[in-house]
Amino acid sequence: MTNPIPQGHEGMIPHLVCTPCADAIEFYKNAFGAEEICRMPSPNDPRIMHAEMKLDGKTFYLADDFPEYCGGQSRSAVTLGGTPVTIHQYVANCDQAIDRAAKAGATVTMPATDMFWGDRYGQVVDPFGHLWAFATHQRDMTDEEMQKAAEAMFAQSAPGA
Questions:
Q1: pLDDT, tens digit, 9 for 90 and up, residues 82-93
Q2: CA 158 → CA 111, 114, 154, 155, distances in Å?
C-alpha cells in the first residue's frame, strides 16, 4: 500500500517562490549549506516548476514564479515587496550562519544578539525576499525569567527611552 505521506516528507514543508529559482538553489547551497535533492524544469520555458532541497536534514521546496497558474497573481516575495513569514533555524553558531549568509549575498536585518528568551538570535533577508532567522540556544529559562528579561529589554528600547 502506498504511504499517503512520503518518507522524508513528514511535517510542515516550506515551499518558497524564488525568481530566478536556479539562482536561489545556488544561493541556498552557498549561504546555508543546503543540499539540492532534485529540480524539475518547466517543459515550456527555462523556469523551474519544482525543486527539493534539504537543510540540516529538513526538506524545503522551491519554484519559480508562475503567475499564469495562480490567477495572474505573483507569489514571489520580491514582487510582493517582502514576506510576513520568517523561516527559523536553530544552528550551532548563529553568528557564523549569519556571516556566511551575508557573504553569499543576504542582507543582515538583525545582527546576532543575546535575546531575553535565552537564545542568541539574528535575521537575514535572502536575495529572493525571504526572511531567515538563525538562533543558538544558550540557556534554559522559566516563563517568569523570560517575562522579566523581556520587560527589562523593552524598557531600554522603548521610544523615548
A1: 999 999 999 999
A2: 19, 18, 6, 5
